[in-house]
Design brief:
two-stranded antiparallel sheet; 67% helix
Length: 470
């Protein structure tokens, strides 16, 4: 780890937070200070000479650690995407088309957006603070692989896929099925890149086959997140070997995803009604993209970027609702989340966590009970609803400490960065990239921790890992 002063670095992170709150009476300026504040934190903690980064690996070979990947996805999603909604609010569309009647006019909604952006920035700073506070100079490895080659990744992917498939057959075990499936996908991605880099046909063929099948399945789901997640995983595992190519492709690939994916997925979702198959809907989606329907694509995409890519509009609705029309929830949401950890087999009357979590969404008027939408809250929103601005700071501080601890622990018990961080941590705890509402997130963390130790015991038992003695 670089010999930089962590206290000085941490205090620096809060400079844009302080400035944005000083400018609270100028909501437009305050918003942009808060928005650029997240870019400042990205630069300060990743690229600047003051950044505190472990020196056990070159930076390009550790990008899936929390200070890089988790921070970039979480804060990128929560903090930076709001600019589209804010510019739309100010009368701009795609930063060029202007509604002169709304241009730069301040309103109560402007103040609400700026308030939410300041909390997003505070959460970003607190997240990184938590990561830096518990980040270890050196991770003590407790296990090492017993094989010199990577054949064990093939068997690991088969084993976890098998266990995951069994878990999917039992409704009470669905929460364990997804992390196990993600481990298999990560193993396939690592095998793919190793096979590509070393020209190992076996690794290349198996990795590419598993990953491609999963990508096709994701493209038929009607959801954008599985497709984007697959692209991120593939880019991250290729990055250590092909830095320049990945960097050059990042912007055009992101543009293609943002431009075409919303329209593509909207069409694929026709299959949800059962009137057409997913394959037929997919073919129709490609036809829509190939047609000269540029106006519809742009309309769909702008709605996606302003309403769904960014969730700040939903955040403003909650801030408008609490505490003026509903008192802070205090410990209620957390208590519900802890109750959700109890398996239904031990509590037949356990409330449905989907219903519980959506109730506050309905109460705040964010979504209608008659609609099919599932507008779940995110960690920052639930932290605010529970304890206000102090809740945002302290919960996100703990969030940062937790993700760093889980990453370090995975590297410690699974023998290093590749198996521990890349495959285990970023698969089992992938939900922490963006976070979820408290009810679902507490459940994912608890059972993810159980899964991590179960797999560790399994790999020790079948002699894939052996202990390292002091």
């Amino acid at each position: 780890m670089q010999n930089n002063n962590p206290t000085k670095l941490i205090l620096t992170l809060y400079l844009p937070v302080l400035i944005s709150y000083i400018l609270i009476n100028s909501p437009i300026i305050s918003y942009f200070v808060a928005w650029f504040g997240s870019l400042f934190i990205f630069y300060t903690t990743i690229l600047s000479p003051a950044a505190i980064i472990n020196q056990d690996l070159p930076i390009h070979k550790q990008i899936m650690r929390p200070i890089f990947l988790t921070q970039l996805i979480f804060a990128g999603f929560m903090c930076t995407t709001s600019v589209f909604y804010f510019m739309d609010h100010l009368g701009y569309r795609y930063f060029t088309e202007v509604n002169y009647g709304a241009q730069f006019k301040e309103s109560e909604q402007t103040a609400l957006i700026a308030s939410c952006q300041r909390m997003n920035l505070l959460a970003h700073a607190a997240l990184v603070t938590g990561i830096l506070l518990v980040q270890k100079n050196h991770i003590k490895i407790r296990s090492v692989k017993t094989f010199d080659d990577d054949d064990f990744l093939i068997w690991l992917s088969i084993i976890v896929f098998g266990i995951g498939s069994i878990c999917q057959r039992f409704s009470g075990l669905n929460q364990m099925a997804l992390p196990l499936t993600l481990i298999g996908i990560s193993c396939a991605a690592v095998l793919f890149v190793k096979g590509f880099n070393t020209k190992n046909i076996k690794y290349l063929g198996i990795g590419a086959t598993i990953f491609t099948i999963n990508f096709i399945h994701a493209s038929l789901s009607g959801y954008k997140e599985p497709i984007i997640t697959n692209v991120i995983i593939l880019a991250c595992v290729f990055f250590p070997y092909f830095k320049k190519i990945i960097l050059y492709l990042a912007i055009p690939v992101a543009y293609v995803l943002l431009y075409f994916l919303p329209t593509y997925n909207n069409t694929v979702r026709q299959s949800w009604s059962g009137e057409v198959s997913a394959e037929e809907a997919q073919n129709q989606a490609f036809e829509n993209l190939n047609s000269k329907n540029e106006e519809q694509i742009e309309e769909t995409n702008w709605e996606f970027m302003t309403k769904r890519l960014s969730e700040i509009e939903m955040f403003t609705q909650f801030v408008d609702y609490v505490p003026s029309r509903h008192p802070f929830y205090d410990w209620e949401i957390i208590e519900n989340s802890l109750e959700g950890l109890i398996p239904r087999v031990f509590w037949s009357g356990k409330p449905n966590m989907e219903t519980v979590s959506m109730q506050r969404v309905y109460d705040a008027g964010v979504a209608n009970k008659m609609s099919a939408v599932s507008a779940k809250t995110r960690p920052i929103v639930d932290a605010y609803l529970s304890f206000g601005i102090p809740g945002v700071f302290f919960f996100m501080l703990f969030y940062g400490m937790l993700v760093q601890h889980l990453s370090d622990k995975a590297e410690e018990i699974f023998g290093g960065y590749e198996l521990g961080c890349v495959i285990m941590f970023n698969s089992i705890f992938q939900g922490l990239w963006r976070g979820n509402n408290f009810e679902f997130m507490f459940n994912n963390i608890f059972w993810g921790y159980v899964i991590m130790w179960f797999l560790y015991a399994l790999l020790r038992t079948i002699k894939v890992l052996k202990p390292v003695f002091d």
